[in-house]
Design goal:
Elements: H1 3-33, H2 40-47, H3 51-59, H4 64-72, H5 81-94, H6 101-118, H7 127-148, H8 153-181, H9 194-202, H10 207-214, H11 220-229, H12 237-255, H13 260-274, H14 277-283, H15 285-308
Length: about 300
């Protein structure tokens, strides 16, 4: 496969997952804002590394609403939902021969619908409905890829991009949200804000999943364990790195060679596979997640060097 083809499919997966993850986070943040904690904008900005943008909106008299518009509709922001969907569509258009009609039509229809809505009067725009549309359509696109695409290198690169982005996003959300609610980094608290911790789980769509697994009241340590170490939870860091490692091994078998990216993918997966939540809190949750996020960034660079020729 040409490196340009691999690059388009890899980034298509990343951009689609970025849009979906952003939509979930914003939806959860808006629900939490109804509880009036006053820290929602700080959490969103920190998750996306946009503290400077938050300060600018505050100076201009805005706060959460302005930041959300920046993350959803601002075409000058390369990580906004609109920009991510446009970039994913551009990548997909270049690779029409490597994706199925179902995948292309689902993605193209989402892009057309977003553009149609954004051309209307912004004052009357239903932002909640727009975010819900992105969330549902992204699920349909990934579902179409899952059930219609040939299991070859094209599918592997799409999966690697999507799961690498998802794992990084989950690690960011847990790091930021956990330490906003527990600044000391300790898992135990005399008083627990049920709604706040529920929304942490809602960011990865795992509120009911938590109840099915633990069948107990919300506990910060168990929330962290679910988001990091449960391989059977599709948005956990462990599951994402398992899928990255699995698809990297399939690519290695297809190409007949292994490189630094393959080694690092296996090492990262093993770290989450054999980690224990008590040991992580002894190390320090922020320190552990920081190391994982740094290594995910390094893995992304190594994938680019090995396959994408960036």
């Amino acid at each position: 496969m040409l490196s340009s083809t691999a690059k388009n499919l890899y980034w298509m997966g990343r951009y689609l997952q970025r849009a979906k993850s952003t939509a979930r986070l914003i939806e959860a943040t808006q629900r939490m804002a109804l509880q009036s904690r006053g820290e929602e904008a700080v959490g969103v900005a920190a998750t996306f590394g946009m503290e400077d943008e938050l300060r600018q909106t505050q100076q201009q008299g805005g706060r959460l609403a302005s930041l959300i518009d920046f993350l959803v509709m601002d075409e000058s922001n390369p990580s906004s939902i609109v920009s991510s969907i446009a970039a994913a569509r551009s990548n997909a258009r270049e690779e029409r021969n490597n994706i199925t009609v179902d995948v292309w039509e689902s993605l193209n229809s989402l892009w057309l619908e977003l553009n149609s809505r954004l051309r209307r009067d912004r004052a009357s725009l239903d932002r909640g409905a727009l975010i819900e549309t992105v969330k549902k359509q992204a699920v349909m696109i990934f579902g179409a890829a899952q059930v219609t695409m040939l299991r070859d290198e094209a599918y592997n690169f799409l999966q690697v991009g999507a799961f690498l982005e998802r794992g990084d996003n989950t690690a960011r959300i847990l790091d930021v949200k956990f330490h906003l609610l527990r600044p000391d980094g300790k898992p135990h608290a005399d008083k627990l804000d049920y709604f706040a911790w529920s929304e942490v789980l809602a960011c990865i769509g795992a509120v009911r999943t938590y109840r099915r697994i633990y069948r107990s009241a919300l506990d910060p340590k168990k929330v962290a364990e679910l988001m990091m170490l449960r391989r059977n939870v599709p948005r956990s860091v462990h599951h994402c790195l398992w899928m990255v490692d699995l698809n990297m091994r399939e690519l290695a078998d297809a190409y007949g060679t292994r490189g630094e990216a393959d080694r690092l993918a296996g090492e990262l997966h093993a770290r989450l596979r054999y980690a224990r939540i008590d040991q992580i809190f002894e190390i320090g949750l922020a320190r552990f997640l920081g190391g994982v996020r740094d290594d995910i960034a390094t893995l992304s660079e190594e994938i680019s060097n090995q396959f994408l020729l960036d």
